[in-house]
Design brief:
Elements: E1 6-9, E2 18-22, E3 30-32, H1 33-38, E4 49-53, E5 59-72, E6 75-84, E7 93-95, H2 97-100, E8 105-108, E9 113-116, E10 126-127, E11 129-131, E12 134-141, E13 144-150, E14 158-160, E15 172-181, E16 184-198, E17 201-211, E18 222-224, E19 233-237, E20 242-245
Parallel strand pairs: 2-7, 3-6, 13-18, 14-17
Antiparallel strand pairs: 1-2, 3-7, 4-5, 5-6, 8-9, 8-19, 10-20, 11-12, 12-13, 12-16, 14-18, 15-16, 16-17, 19-20
């Protein structure tokens, strides 16, 4: 739906299939609180109710619940997760890296299919690292090699101003916009870059959002929303810690 990757899955007690948002930019899986109440999911008493920062500083009230027998592809998943009011009405469960990293993940944007646990041989591997429980890969944008969080929940690449000062006023566009992501909003500059590279794949005319310094994560330079880059397929091999793009 738009740039969001929504898959259907069977969940006991639900008369329809659940809508799952596949989000590699989220560290934790979150069940929509309305669904958790509807299915009377067990609460974890020692988890309590607290707040958790989502994208762009939006705060969510969360509690810990037990997700049971979620059928995701050939896998049946039961595990503790979070429950909160999600910003997307149509999403029942946001599936984060706590589940996704347990098997390789392939997203085929052209065929609109998601596969778990399959191999992928196409393209040059891009080594990634796990930083603060997130997938961080090197991406070259207009002469700078940046460490970006691979975030399938984002539309376009987003970088922090401190990391791209070398661009100066060279980049075109410089449009002031309000960027919305994960329930939060942030003022940003939108620019168009003439060139970039992921692994062996050359990119051109890349739309990028630049965020002010105060919201930068010191461990990364921003995050990579692959949906707008014209990629056919991305594959995350968590065992080898390699990203493949086609």
């Amino acid at each position: 739906q738009g740039h969001l990757i929504i898959v259907k899955a069977f969940l006991p007690g639900l008369v329809r299939k659940a809508n799952l948002l596949i989000d590699t930019g989220a560290t934790a899986t979150v069940v929509n609180r309305e669904l958790a109440d509807q299915l009377n999911m067990d609460r974890i008493s020692d988890g309590g109710v607290g707040t958790r920062a989502s994208a762009f500083g939006a705060a969510m009230k969360v509690e810990r619940v037990v997700l049971r027998q979620l059928h995701l592809g050939r896998r049946v998943i039961s595990r503790p997760c979070l429950a909160a009011e999600l910003p997307w009405k149509e999403v029942d469960i946001l599936v984060g890296l706590d589940i996704l990293r347990t098997a390789s993940l392939t997203i085929d944007y052209q065929k609109r299919k998601v596969a778990f646990g399959q191999g992928f041989a196409a393209g040059q591997p891009v080594p990634f690292e796990i930083v603060q429980k997130l997938v961080v890969a090197p991406v070259k944008l207009h002469g700078l090699t940046l460490r970006l969080v691979v975030d399938t929940g984002a539309l376009s690449p987003v970088v922090y101003e401190k990391s791209v000062e070398a661009w100066g006023q060279e980049v075109s566009g410089q449009k002031r916009v309000k960027l919305v992501h994960g329930g939060g909003t942030m003022k940003a500059r939108q620019v168009t870059l003439p060139d970039g590279q992921i692994g062996g794949m050359e990119l051109a005319d890349i739309g990028v959002f630049i965020l002010p310094n105060q919201d930068g994560n010191p461990a990364t330079d921003g995050f990579l929303g692959p949906a707008s880059l014209g990629l056919e397929t991305i594959h995350l091999d968590f065992e080898r810690q390699a990203l493949y793009v086609k």
